[in-house]
Automatic annotation (TrEMBL), chains A, B:
<feature type="domain" description="HTH asnC-type">
    <location>
        <begin position="3"/>
        <end position="66"/>
    </location>
</feature>
<keyword id="KW-0805">Transcription regulation</keyword>
<keyword id="KW-0804">Transcription</keyword>
<dbReference type="InterPro" id="IPR019888">
    <property type="entry name" value="Tscrpt_reg_AsnC-like"/>
</dbReference>
<dbReference type="Pfam" id="PF01037">
    <property type="entry name" value="AsnC_trans_reg"/>
</dbReference>
<dbReference type="InterPro" id="IPR036388">
    <property type="entry name" value="WH-like_DNA-bd_sf"/>
</dbReference>
<dbReference type="InterPro" id="IPR000485">
    <property type="entry name" value="AsnC-type_HTH_dom"/>
</dbReference>
<dbReference type="Pfam" id="PF13404">
    <property type="entry name" value="HTH_AsnC-type"/>
</dbReference>
<dbReference type="InterPro" id="IPR011008">
    <property type="entry name" value="Dimeric_a/b-barrel"/>
</dbReference>
<protein>
    <submittedName>
        <fullName>Lrp/AsnC family transcriptional regulator</fullName>
    </submittedName>
</protein>
<dbReference type="InterPro" id="IPR036390">
    <property type="entry name" value="WH_DNA-bd_sf"/>
</dbReference>
<keyword id="KW-0238">DNA-binding</keyword>
<dbReference type="InterPro" id="IPR019887">
    <property type="entry name" value="Tscrpt_reg_AsnC/Lrp_C"/>
</dbReference>
Length: 152, 152
DNA sequence: AATATATTAGAATATAATTCTGTATTAATT
DNA sequence: AATTAATACAGAATTATATTCTAATATATT
């Protein structure tokens, strides 16, 4: 596994837009269609590229209200921690959940329609999970930067 | 703008994998290729789907160390706030930056290779930005859930 | 009910992906 | 250094898919 400069450029392009034609990437890189085609297959085979997805405009699908929820667990007994994580995976409003160091144990990214729906989510879903000690919600006022790309 | 059940199903499928053939989506939805083709074009035209991207495995590109940085500004004068946001946009290590309510003003998602690189980032880039009051770093121990899809 | 509009299916066509062939380049082996 | 093997490449040939076209059907509008 070693990516040369062309591979890195290609990954960068694919992270920006994966729906261009092979010819277009080829022109950007100064390679032939076949060369690019083989490189993409290789990046997929190596697991560098994991999948290709469509991104949606949250406003257009009425999930424009984003909250970063900080959670402290009540106790850190293994079984309870695992149950907590299992429950989180089931919540459709949660797109991301990180186990973190620091003041809190977990940080979640939650997408809902509005404050009313968020309250509903908190009351009926999140705090319904046992073992939650305390939560602190940071409401997203604006997305200064929002990219799925990893700079390489 | 009103998405029917088929549109929502289609958006869900495209958020999971946007590289299937029109025929495959058509079979999943019980529609013809043309019907699906037209619906996808419409979703793009309406701005529901904004773009198509490749996702990469952070481990494979040596950006496996993720940190959520909480930032408090020193002062909230408009010009300084805008300068801060402009500077953040330039930092390649930062994939996301949210202006939030609560204890801190901003929460950043940062991807680097390791702790050494993170320290370097903090010292030479992040805290080099003027107007930063204080920071609190939450190191990601594990990604319990990590999706780019919005549930609709 | 009549008309317009949008959605659909299937066929025809255009475009792009994939495979194939041969060549050049690089790396490995002796 | 010469030889072999492996890899990456370009261009042509083929296959598969996207896109367009046509006509029919459904949905909404008056």
């Amino acid at each position: 596994m070693d990516l040369d400069h062309l591979d890195k450029q290609l990954v960068t392009l694919l992270q920006e837009d994966c729906k261009k034609t092979t010819k277009q990437y080829a022109d950007s890189l100064g390679l032939s269609k076949t060369a690019v085609y083989e490189r993409i297959r290789r990046l997929e085979r190596l697991g560098v590229i994991t999948n290709y997805v469509a991104l949606v405009n949250k406003e257009k699908v009425k999930r424009d209200f984003t909250v970063l929820c900080h959670i402290r667990l009540a106790q850190h007994i293994k079984e309870n921690v695992l149950r907590f994580e299992r429950e989180i995976l089931k919540l459709e409003e949660v797109s991301e959940c990180f186990h973190v160091s620091g003041d809190y144990d977990y940080i979640l990214k939650v997408h809902v329609e509005n404050m009313t729906k968020f309250r509903e989510f908190m009351v009926t879903k999140l705090t319904a999970i046992s073992n939650i000690g305390s939560t602190q919600s940071s409401f997203v006022i604006s997305e200064v930067k929002s990219s799925t790309a990893i700079s390489i």
